[in-house]
Amino acid sequence: MSFVQKGAARGTSWARRARRHPLLAAGLLSLLGGSAGAQSQFPPPEKWCDFGRAGPAETQPAPVAMAAAHGQVRFFGVGPSYTDADLSLVMALEGRTVDWAEATRHYASTMEGVCALDVTSKTLPRARVLTVGPIAFIRPGTGELRIPRHARAAIIDLRGLPAAPGLEEALARAIGAISTTPVERLAGLVRAHVGMLDETTPYNVYGNYIDRLAQEPHAATGQAQLPVALLTETELAPATARFAADLRMAGRAWLIGAPIHAAVAESKWMPVSTRGLLVRTTRLEDAQGPIPDVIPADLSLATLGMSALSAEALPSEQSLQLTSWLGAPPAVDRTAPVVRNAPPERISLEAVPPIAASSAIARADLLTLHGATRLFYPYFDIVGDGIDGRLLETLARVDSTPVTQRDQLRRLLLRFNEVLKDGHGFVTLYGGPPPAGFFPVSMEEVQGQPIIRRSALPTLQPGDTLVSINGTPMSEWLAEEQAHASAATPGYLHDVAIRRLLIMNAPMDVGLRAMDGTTRVVQVQPQPVELLNQVSGPPSLRPAGSLADLGAPNLHYLNLASEVLTSPDALRAALTAAQGASGLVVDMRGYPGINHYEVAQRLIPTPFRTPVFRYPIWVGPENFETWDSGNTRQPLTNPSYAGPIVLLVGPRTVSAAENFSIMMTGARRVTVIGRRSAGTNGNVTRLLLPGQLAVSFTGMGILFPDQSRFHAVGIVPHIEVAPTLQDIAHGTDPELLRAIQFLHTGQ
Fold it and tell me: DSSP characters for 63-98?
């Protein structure tokens, strides 16, 4: 005997059941025959947390799980302010150490649209079908369902289903098995992100908006379209509540038992430790607008004179007369105003209030950064996914050494960003006293050693090698700083680390080795920023013009660094002067100060492609895709230059400088000489965090025009040339001299 047959055999007669439960017969007949029956009373919608059911525990460490949950609240929840969410996290993480279960409860108690629940160990049961008379009693679960051919109606029992993996699929199989036409589902208003909005400025290439996300109908796989009732209870898992709301609003099913709270159906389960969070991320709607806050049951168990209902409480196969009254449920009453809010159209960019540095702020900032990069950083497939381990490492530092200074916050976030291997990974402090002064030099790496290229102080000479800082050997100092610096290529990593010397808050003892090998220690006092500005900038500050002074009167030079070329008019004048030159050296070892697209259009005489800009796109918390953007640019003339070009690049060729270089190399317009570039392009995005600081990272992927990888590759020279100690000491430019040689000889 099959399991379905056993269920039927256990049934008792309709008369016997009716005598035991006098209202059962009248209630079910009324329900399935088209009368709404008695509607249950229900609490107000603001109490929705009492009606959600938890899911299983997270397998990730609690801090990693909490970072993910906060990311959902911050970027997809219904609260109006990032700042409010971040400060709620700060308050939840107070203490010498963190009790993550208690932190989860505290966090939810201060947040709109968030509930804390204890996790459950329940898993999804096996699917079952019992038949009693003409009714199939369906218990959704794992595995397939077989519906008897003689079934004339169905009850799907939704009670006790945990928010476990596979639940949505199990529910879809249950309704599909008793349907011959697809079952329409509700749409939802969700927050969508094209990249992560830069939170420090209103001017963005990124954006967020509200989208109406449609759901694919439940597929029909059944042999007959059976009338159906859903058996509900007070607490439901989000997917179960969503399923019930879909079917009842579509007029596909009746509700027996408890009402459906829309807020539960609109939430997502995010486990943390022994507790987890239900996070509202949606507002469900149909063609008439948002669905009611509470969808009442069409018939309560109390109305049936019962405290429970199971397959054995249904009539037997002798009750075929029941099928004569089957019908569709009436429309849901929508006269009550909807009070639950939709996700906000746009999150406000608020100034983070000044708060003294603390361990709680450090923890909250680290978790927020982790959650943001998990959602929006585009290069894990290239650099590796190490952010979970780095989060645990930096949080352990907070626990071992309480945070009391803002610079501790900064160092912790810099350490986190290091694992991203991203040349845009910086931390900016707002407010607070300005630095005491600056170290007025520019430096260059030669075989891993920092060499002074230019100096505003007579005690520091070009060609001097830095060998110690305040008594710490330079190798140790660099290793420590590089552990707190993010970069995609070794040359740029050295540059990012060594520039930390430039900002000074106290006198600094600098150990130096001169060209002749002698060593000395010079105490440097913090200097005015004007002195730093005199010597900072790219390797060469040479202006545009003829290279006659270097023995090449037939060649011209164009320096695109912002310190040198400051206006479009200056560019056009330089190109006009270069007309007739047999070759042009374009120096992009600095950062461009004008529209580099115009420069490319005047140097590339045919249409050419820009880089591929790959945006990460989230439409609600479950739907991720990427969008590739790029275009073809047309050449500009009068003036322009169509002769041979050498492009100079180096470790500080980064971002916009590399964007220009990508177009030039992609068009095969140049021979590249110098050292590999920074390997970091794409618009920056910034998180504004408690503690009055902002953390940045690259918010879009960049590919070469042929869609090959760019990040951590960069612009690789055709001819590798690097300065020597003697070149720096004597002020010669070996990259430029090699470019001249190439343009003269072709080699």
Answer: HHHHHHHHHHHHHHSS-SBHHHHHHHHHHHT-SSS-
